[in-house]
Amino acid sequence: MKKFFIQTFGCQMNVYDSDRLHATLATRGWAPTDKIETADLVILNTCSVREKATEKVFSHLGKINKLKKKYNLEMKIAVIGCVAKELGKVVRHRAPYVDYVFGPQSWHLLLGALENTPTLCDTGNYRLDKFKDLATVKTQAVSAFISIQEGCDNVCTYCIVPFTREREFSRDFDTVMKEVDQVVSNGAREIVFLGQNVNNYKDENGKNLADLIRATAKIELVKRIRYVTSYPTYLTDELIDLFGSEPKVMPFLNLPIQAGSNAVLKKMNRHYTREDYFAIIDKIKKVNPNVVVSSDLIVGFCGETEEDFQDTMDAAKRVPFLVSYSFKYSPRPHTPAQKAFKDDVNPKDKAERLKRLQDLLHRIQKDFNQACIGKTVEVLIDQDKGAGVFRGRSPYMQNVKIDTDKEGLLGEVVSVKIKDASSFLLYGELA
Ligand code: SAH
Ligand code: SF4
Ligand code: F3S
User: Fold this and answer.
1) Which CATH class, in words, describes the domain spanning 376-430?
2) What pLDDT, in 10s, does the model give residues 272-292?
3) Beta carbon of 151 within 6 Å of any ligand 2 atom
4) CB 341 within 8 A of CB 303
5) Quick check: CB of 265 below 6 Å from ligand 2?
């Protein structure tokens, strides 16, 4: 049996794509391997959101080529995903030993190419096609991710995603619900809907994300529902109301503000001000004061002053932001910012601002976690580590470790009395 190896970089959407490709190869007589040197086919599913991410792919490719030369000259190498789309044929100029190059909306073509084309580069936009002929993920995971919307029609000036993932499209409601049923019958108890602008999901019959959530909540075995990533101005009242009316919707929302200064937000072409953003948060908290918000944040965007940066720090404290990600601005090809603005915050300031922001986010998280000591939190158990150790997640995405002599907790929501906490982990016992 021929063997394949897939390595995935970047966002959850890439993980989802890789899982589907994995499932499909498995139904076509391929066997997975976790050792590159034994593989007949090596696939890198790549991310190009920051320059470092793109460069990482080429250093990996160099290593793979060494293994190919040493162990298996017949090894096929495929680069799929956002770097493939960003660079197209250039991937093969820089790494001529790469056989296949497919973008995020064309990687399904790899399956046919393996049978009849020795090398191929096609980074076209085939939209829903990749969902059609592919096996559904055979995930056994307690928490199952399902891509429902892809691409992006916003033009945030720093972002390459609208170029790599292309124009926005949504999958059909019935197909998504079929997939929900399938993953639930495989053991999923939490459904996480994925999209670049997931809250803007709308299928051809007008079904929206709230419709999907309500239909999913009716499935008895589903205990938790989440969705990522939301664009602030697409958060409808209908979605906000679900934080109050639907207990299966977790009180946790990823709503990236990106920057706290109105001048920077404008330059980023985000369609809201900080005041608009805070007003959305207030509205959510009115419906359910327990909702916790996470954000993605960029520091050192073109023209960002120390004062602008202080506005980001202030927003992080004010909301406050938990389980958040922060990055230094990295100019990307195919973006308006790269064409029109100067990347003029010096690297030292960028690094220093990132450190200050990350220290703050860290402190906020630590305080939040420590405030849980002595409390009882509901934990969905998603890992059985053996020897009575389980891992799971709180409603707020905190990692929780528990020791118990009980068995069979995988997929259960249990009450855990928290005994100890660090910035990354809560520790407790069954209440
Ligand atoms: N669709 C999502 C995010 C996609 S990219 C959204 O709109 O929020 C993931 C994160 O990478 C972004 O939220 C942003 O914070 C970061 N990012 C995107 N482009 C970047 C760049 N050029 N430099 C640094 N970070 C960037
Ligand atoms: Fe990128 Fe903005 Fe689209 Fe998110 S909304 S994918 S940050 S362009
Ligand atoms: Fe990266 Fe593409 Fe996702 S650029 S963040 S893999 S959409």
Assistant:
1) mainly beta
2) 999 999 999 999 999 999 999
3) no
4) yes
5) no
